[in-house]
Write a structure and sequence with these properties.
With about 110 residues, this protein is an alpha+beta fold. Helix content is about 20%, strand content about 25%. Keywords: Signal.
Length: about 110
């Protein structure tokens, strides 16, 4: 390695160390009020709950009450329709952004049924 390469590497490392560390904020914070609708839940109605990471770090909507089919949580990736409560109204949740921020193995959906 020549002297120029060593200096360039040193400058880049110094710049990285001097830059403030900032972590990306999740697209939707945990605890956000959410609702889901999915035929697999045994109802055609919306079921409400809160967004939270499960034991496997996958983002789930933990339901306020069990669904008719006995589910207590639904993955954001697996639900047919997902909305979040924002500024006093229900709006579509950014499911794509939530999924992109999850570990790869969480992006396929599923539930605790």
């Amino acid at each position: 390695m020549n002297v120029l390469s060593c200096k360039l590497i040193s400058v880049l490392l110094a710049a990285l160390l001097a830059a403030p560390l900032s972590w990306a904020t999740p697209p939707v914070p945990e605890g956000t009020r959410m609702r889901v609708m999915d035929a697999g839940l045994g109802t055609r109605d919306w079921l409400e709950g809160r967004l939270k990471a499960g034991a496997d770090s996958c983002m789930m909507v933990f339901l306020d009450r069990p669904s008719a089919s006995g589910h207590t949580a639904v993955s954001v990736a697996g639900a047919r329709q997902v909305q979040m409560f924002q500024s006093g109204q229900w709006v579509p949740a950014p499911v794509g952004a939530i999924n992109a921020a999850q570990p790869r193995e969480c992006r396929g959906g599923g539930d605790n049924g």
